[in-house]
Write a structure and sequence with these properties.
This protein is mainly alpha-helical. It has a domain of about 80 residues: Orthogonal Bundle (Lysozyme), CATH 1.10.530. A two-stranded antiparallel sheet has the order 1-2. Strand 1 and strand 2 form a beta hairpin.
Amino acid sequence: MESARDDVRSAIGAAAQRTGVDFSYLLAQAKSESGLNPTAKAGNSSATGLYQFLDQSWLAVVKRHGTEHGFGWAADAITPKAGGGFTVAPQYRQAVMNLREQAGPAALMAASYASDNAQSLNRSIGRDATSTDLYMCHFLGLGGATRFLQACNSAPNASAASLFPREAQANRSIFYDRSGGARSLSEVYSLMGQKLANNGADTVGGAAAAGGASSFGVEAGDLVSAPPTTGTNGFRLAVDDTIATDPSTSGDIAQTLAALEQGRMNVLRPTPAQAKLAYLMLSMPLT
């Protein structure tokens, strides 16, 4: 169990480095949303994975950011619908949706989503977005969060449920206290901030950088250049088989494993070569 949680933390750390989004925010959000369980599923919606992306929210962020993170095959399989929303090529749908249940892809998409929201919020609310602001985006969507924050600034004591009745009906524990009283906008905001703070996030400082340059030296398309293969053992990332099976990489792999064992490699701040090799190692089929 601890090993699995360490893997999740490493994936979140890699996403934070690659996108410039604060690690403590991404970790706290994952703790709050899923308890760091990459395969968590909501009982009353399509929310799935580490960050509990709904189906359509997931398709939207993969369509927008999949290619830059090496999931071009997934982005290409997603098509916007004329009336709104997205559809997926049938032969790739399950593979695209299964990415939500892998810590690496889920963390990268959550970080990219947060970065997009931070840039939009900075313009809308006239200040740097905090972790709580970004969590409101994850909860209400960018449009809903912008409306919430603007209303909270002008009328903090107004009933949150009266402004967001549909969301309140689906999330009574957020919008109402234990006695059934409706919480104000400021009380809901404070509650959401406390959820993050309880899981270790800095809810005061900015959570996302304006940019998001990769610090790995891995270009889009290097990691997953073809649709994934699936089988009885589940989904795995696909890379060029000639790379994954090239005997010349065995020495590098041995050195990397030795560095990990001896504590000489920082998994949250790997060198570009270590990061790329780690992805190749993860993509190899189990024997």
